[in-house]
Request: fold
Amino acid sequence: MRSERRKGEPMGKVWLVGAGPGDPGLLTLRGREVLERAEVVVFDRLVGAGLFAFFPEGAERLDVGKEGGRHPVPQREIEALLVDRALAGRRVVRLKGGDPFLFGRGGEEIEALLAHGVPFEVVPGVTSAFAAPACAGIPVTHRGAASSVHVVTAHTRDGDLPDRDFEALARLDGTLVFLMGVGAAGALCSRLVEAGMAPSTPAAAVERGTTAHQRLVAGTLASLPELARSAGVRPPAVLVVGEVVELAERFGWRGALPLSGVRVLVTRPRGRAGRLSRMLRDAGAEVAEFPCIATEPLTGPLPLLEGAGWVGFTSVTGVEAFFGLLASAGRDVRELGSARVAAIGPATRDALRRHGLRVDYMPDVYDGAHLAEGLADRMGTGDILLFRAESGSPELTEVLRARGVPFREAALYRTRYARGAPLPDFDMALFSSASTVRGLAACVPDGWDRSRVQAVCIGEQTARAAAGAGFANVTTASSATLEALVEAAIRAASSSCPDARTHWSPGQRM
Ligand code: SAH
Reply:
């Protein structure tokens, strides 16, 4: 590997970024900001797949964690990689689980960068040591229960319990949080008892904290090793020892949320998923954004607006593309003259409103067929000019044709599928249009089992596309709004109860 500065190339930079404990919502704002501008992303296995959506399209992604039997890239090679890419002038984000300096070997990487004169910046992260207990309802300190917290690794290079002064740890009388301690749980709990802690001291394991698979196994120093073993607790998990563990029974909060334990895939295009993802997270879901379609505006002459009695818009993208085209032609909204304006639903109506256009007609049921019927009933002079996607869905035009209504179509944008992007695991996919269904179908590998996941669709047309694409469990929203889509997701989750949901119960003492 080359590690020399190439002549004439400007120096790049490395950002050592804490990815947080697994829930993508726990990446910091600064972390997201630098990630979105990265040219190279080097990431570990503990980095939640939900963060992939923030990787810029076209950035080089280097997975240096171990997964599926592959070995991890050795630490020295990772360091050489960072140096190499930075010397080649690239903006490199080194994304590490939790906080980069808490048992994250961040310091070693900085030593390597310093040795080669590579500039760097550190973006701290939310550490699993505190976040995993917090999401299980365990405050690591609490008045009257613990006035200090100590984060300790339970792992040594050769896999044994580290030779530390357990008597000193026992005397601290604070909360002890052990990382990398699943394998050593038995030895660890016995050593703490030998060192003078009461066997009845509360102790817990929090597995995959902050994610949909979060699980709390709580007991005492005497009972935890067996409880964890029989529950099959696996890494990553933190072990928490101290009185504060008992608070989980009352402070556990996640299980009460209707989508807790459900991994939801949001398939909307980049930049359009924000509100939906937020509503889903409010309901407790672990959300991964997977923009399986992208839209690109089509350039071309402005269609002749003169003669149109109605102009119809069927998506927010169409509205934005229309105003883009208008502006690039050096025109403005006055071009619409006396044409009346129709929108397929509230999101499109609101987009038009933001551009200063009041909507004259919006159907009660937000789909193409109803829009067409409504327009056909309201025809006066002139025809209907529809601003749509290239190869938009046929429902709208079929009804207009059947009703003998004159119309023209102007294709303003094209939908592209995001083939090749790595697909995160999920229990449920949300589809806000038939094209997102087709987009996801184009992205999943051959033979991918569609019966394992729920498809939640914004309307009948989308549901038909989902059934047609082989999804067996399809739920349809009661109306075509994001609110109704989230309600449908909650309905689907409570009727099916995927495994993930039974993993979890707040404050559970096993
Ligand atoms: N820098 C990381 C820790 C890296 S060491 C941080 O600040 O979180 C890896 C250990 O972190 C794991 O063995 C486990 O003990 C803990 N860990 C990481 N993610 C976790 C999660 N989501 N839930 C529970 N423990 C986690």
